[in-house]
Structures are given as C-alpha cells and as structure tokens.
Amino acid sequence: MERQRWRSCLGCLGLVVIASIVAWGFLAFRSFSLVGIAVLPVEGILDSGESESTLMMDVTGARTVSQLLRQSARDPRIKALVVFVDSPGGSAAAAQEIFHSIRRFKERTGKPVIAAMGDVAASGGYYVACAADKIYALPSTLTGSIGVIWQSVNVERLLSNLGIKPETLKAGRFKDTGSFFRSMTPQERELLQQMLNDVHNQFIADVAKGRNLPVEKVREIADGRILTGRQAKALGLVDELGSLDDAIRDARRQVNLPETTPVWVLERKRGLIDLLLGTKAIVPFPKSLLTKPLLLHVDGRLGIGISALLWQGAINLKH
Fold this sequence. Notes:
Elements: H1 2-33, E1 36-47, E2 52-53, E3 58-61, H2 62-73, E4 78-91, H3 92-109, E5 113-122, H4 124-129, E6 134-137, E7 142-144, E8 149-150, H5 156-161, H6 186-211, H7 215-221, E9 226-228, H8 229-234, E10 240-241, H9 244-254, E11 263-265, H10 272-277, H11 287-290, E12 296-297, E13 307-308, E14 315-318
Parallel strand pairs: 1-3, 1-4, 1-11, 4-5, 5-6, 5-7, 6-10
Antiparallel strand pairs: 2-3, 4-14, 7-9, 8-14, 12-13
Helix pairs in contact: 2-3, 6-7
C-alpha cells in the first residue's frame, strides 16, 4: 500500500513536470514568433566601456550599447527601435560612438528609430538623441547644451601650505598638461582650446547631420546653453512634445503594429552577482570612472553635474 502511494505521488509529480515543460516550450515558441518594439535605455553618465549601475550613479557604456544594437539588427522580431535618453552626457568619445552605432542600426535594418527624452538629455545625451529619425521631449526636459568642457583643479598653493612639493619628470613638452600641481601655461591653454574646438565642431556637424539642419544654424545655438523641451522644439532640435509612451505609440504606428504589441527593453546580460544582489552594485562609484583620472564625476540628477579632476583634465560632453 505504501509503495503504491509513492508510485502515485511520483506519477503526479512527473505529470506536473511534463506539463510545465510543455507550457514553457509553448510560451517560448510564442515569444519567438512575436514581433514588437525594442527600447534602448541610455541613462546616467556616458562612458566608452561597459554599462554599470552603482549606489551613486548609472553609467551607459558605448561598448554595451554597440553590442546590443548589433544583436538587435539581426533580430527579425524587432520592427522599430525607441531610444530612451535620460543622461546629462559624459565622455565625448562615448557619445559619438553611441550616435554612430544607432545610425549604423538604421542603415543596416531600415527600421524606424525614435528618441524619447526623460528628465535630462543634454550635451552628450542630446548628441545620442540626434541619431534618431524623430525626437520626443517633455516640455520641461532639460536638453541642448551643445558644447564641450575641460575642467581641472590647481592645488599648488594648498600643497605648498601643507609643506608638500611635487616633483614631475616628463619627456614631451605638453605631457603634464592639466596637472593639478601647477598652473597651465598660455601655450597649454591654446593647445587645449584647439582640441576642444575640434571636438565641438564634430559635435555640431553630427547634430546638423542627424537633424538635417544647416551647420551654421546649429552653430548659432551651439554655445552650451541649456534648453527646455519646448524651447528646443521651437528651435528645431526636437520634433514633438511627448513622453516615452508617446514615442512607443508612434513607433507602433509607423510599422503598423497594434497597441498590444510587446515592448522589449534591451539590456546586457546580468552576472551572478547582479542576480544575487539586485541591479545596483554595492560599490559607490562605477569602476569605469574609478580607473580614470577623476576624483569626482557626479550625475547631474544629483544636483551637481560637474567633474572635479584628480589627475588630469578630461574632455566631457555634459550638462
């Protein structure tokens, strides 16, 4: 009797397992057969490495974004892409790389790409949005800030008061340009200004290309000014006032998909630590910033939005 009862239990358990496998297979097959809209989040500071999320800030890595877009370009289920930008900017090179990655996605697939702005899509954040076919912004979104910045600190007098005298050896006249141990020379300032102007011109050219505007018209407003979404629309930097949901609805309309069409968020695969501890790493700052010459690089959403440099200056596109 006891043996028969165990057999019955095992039989029921087997049926449950088989039913679960069949149901999982059906759902998996159904999900693979569906078509939908992909949303690419571009949030926090822009950096050239991998995307990270820590206790203090989020970082969108250009390398991660490029990989996600290459994978999405090969996915026949994705019929349109919505890029959600909530970023004050960051690395000039990262913003430029993400901009070109989005444009390559458009060229390879021919699928519509729409950008939607959140709280902030300024400087490098706006650079990224310009790669889209159409841009949505909320009326109060902070955007624009088409400019480039170099910031460094000079602690020479502070160290002198502490009785500390730094020594620097270099091979190359400009090798320690931006050092916080001394003031910059006029020649160094001129060199850096030329470099900033070059990056600024690249920024302006890509905005003009992405927005289909004359370069000179973009240059008139590319003085670093911050704009609201409504002001940006009046200047031709934004197409429509609306939210992320509005952008998704527009994307569905453009590819003739119903309102029930699924929306997939593109994100990198999470490691075991992320799965166990959640989406936020327990370290305060991303390792991509800690390994660079930065003392502090704070997201504008914390109300600071500045870079204080510990070692050397770094070119940034940010609000």
